[in-house]
Design goal:
It is a single chain. 40% of the residues lie in helices and 16% in strands. With 422 residues, it is α/β, with parallel strands linked by helices. The strands form 5 sheets. Strands 4-10-9-8-7-5-6 form a 7-stranded mixed β-sheet, sandwiched between helices. The chain has a 4-stranded antiparallel β-sheet with strand order 13-14-17-16, with helices on one face. It has a two-stranded antiparallel sheet with strand order 1-2. α8 links the parallel β8 and β9. α2 runs antiparallel to α10 and α11 runs parallel beside α14. Bound molecules: 4'-deoxy-4'-aminopyridoxal-5'-phosphate. Belongs to the class-V pyridoxal-phosphate-dependent aminotransferase family. Csd subfamily. Its cofactor is pyridoxal 5'-phosphate. Pfam families: Aminotran_5 (PF00266).
Length: 422
């Protein structure tokens, strides 16, 4: 049977009923809003189901207060909900240490920066290497590049082959006794490649190096288990998984987080402060200085409940079927180049491509006129696009509420662009 009841899932997302068109500067207004929205930009951000929005409303209407266990009722309620949200995130990714291994950050980017600053600036120096992949998102690539510049460490890149996969033989050579950190994207946001991160973790650990997994495109779309991967650090963002913007999570092995210094200083994360020095709160609060993003953190847990009830294996399967369908339909045309592993491979739910002779910005403008929202550009993987030999690509990315008919609308829009630019 088909993995998901998409029709009923779509009812959870009011935005999917809206129409678009007309003046893009006046959203939701005017008679020109005339075509149904076809939202295929989920790798950039996902839409938000009612119950997640309602959890934000419940918080602000019902128990809005600062956390850190104030004495009064509301603060107690907010503290408990916020702390339990960390446990819920931990459980979802298989972190048996619970909240102590989950730091709430602003997003994946902040999680990368937290580790690069707290761990990297201390641990790295001349003669050390950080090994990345050529398909890293800028969140990881730029962060480790700059940390390496500051510390004198070297950055090495595991090459991507013509099929969009990592050259694991080269990986085994590049990860050597100089290596202190391997940072790899789990599912590529451009190629859709699912990387063998458990294997990379083994290679790293054989050299006493750590592994940081950028899970921004895996946690939203498939079941994951940080302990099965044996990741040392693992990061993702709520806004790509039915949650709100402004909150994400860093998983770190407890003993590593314990050894690291905070990356931010201030109130709320300290135990004892004197005019000379300070000591830190227990994990994870040590890394959450200042008033945290309470409402969104609580809504993050609600998003996880939502996804969990549907079932991540079914979400994965649904996306896989959509991605296969999109790949096959686009691959019918000789003038379309699709990037990443071939159809049928274990692929994330997205397809990036170019139409011969049409810039992705023009293509996406034509698609937008038909209500089809895709991403055009370099998807924060400029060096990878350089390697592909193109400045940009068009990316259609799918989620649990997308349908085959929406992919048909995409293909029709591409047909129109081909005729217009012929
Ligand atoms: N890594 C990958 C693979 C991503 O797709 C993204 C989001 N485009 C990020 C990192 C950064 O996520 P955020 O913008 O939420 O920090």
């Amino acid at each position: 049977s088909y993995p998901l009841d998409v029709e009923s899932i779509r009812e959870d997302f009011p935005i999917l009923d809206r129409k678009v068109g007309g003046d893009a500067n006046a959203p939701g207004e005017g008679p020109d809003d005339d075509v149904p929205l076809v939202y295929l930009d989920n790798a950039a951000t996902s839409q938000t189901p009612k119950r997640v929005v309602e959890s934000l409303v419940d918080y602000y209407y019902g128990y809005n207060a600062n956390v850190h266990r104030g004495i009064h009722h509301l603060s107690q309620e907010a503290s408990v909900a916020y702390e339990e949200a960390h446990d819920r995130v931990a459980e979802f990714v298989g972190a048996s240490g619970g909240r102590e291994e989950i730091v709430f950050t602003k997003n994946t980017t902040e999680a990368e920066n937290l580790v690069a600053n707290s761990w990297g600036l201390e641990a790295l120096g001349p003669g050390d290497s950080v090994v990345l992949t050529e398909m890293e998102h800028h969140a990881s690539l730029v962060t480790w590049q700059q940390t390496a510049k500051k510390t004198g460490a070297e950055v090495r890149y595991i090459p991507v082959d013509d099929d969009g996969r990592l050259d694991m033989d080269r990986a085994a050579e590049l990860i050597d006794d100089s290596t202190e950190m391997v940072s790899a994207v789990h599912v590529s946001n451009t190629l859709g490649t699912v990387n063998p991160v458990a294997e990379l973790a083994d290679l790293a650990h054989e050299q006493d190096a750590f592994v940081f997994v950028d899970a921004a495109q895996s946690v939203p779309n498939r079941p994951v288990d940080v302990e099965a991967i044996d990741a040392d650090f693992f990061a993702f963002s709520a806004h790509k998984m039915c949650g709100p913007t402004g909150v994400g999570a860093l998983y770190g092995k407890r003993h590593l987080l314990e050894e690291m210094e905070p990356h931010l200083y201030g109130g709320g994360h300290v135990r004892k402060v004197t005019f000379e020095d300070a000591t830190w709160e227990e994990l994870p609060w040590k890394f959450e200085a200042g008033t945290p993003n309470i409402a969104d953190g609580i809504a993050f847990a609600e998003a996880i409940d939502y996804l969990d009830e549907i079932g991540m294996e079914r979400v994965r399967r649904h996306e896989e079927l959509l991605a296969e369908y999109a790949y096959d339909r686009l691959a019918e045309f000789d003038d379309i180049e699709i990037y990443g592993p071939p159809a049928g491979a274990d692929r994330g739910g997205l397809v990036s491509f170019n139409l011969d002779g049409v810039h992705s910005h023009d293509l996406s403008t034509i698609l937008s006129e038909r209500g089809v929202a895709v991403r055009a550009g370099d998807h924060c993987t400029q060096p990878l696009h350089d390697k592909l030999g193109v400045p940009a690509s068009t990316r259609a990315s799918f989620y649990l509420y997308n349908t085959r008919e929406e992919i048909d609308a995409l293909v029709e829009g591409v047909d129109e662009a081909r005729e217009l630019f012929a």
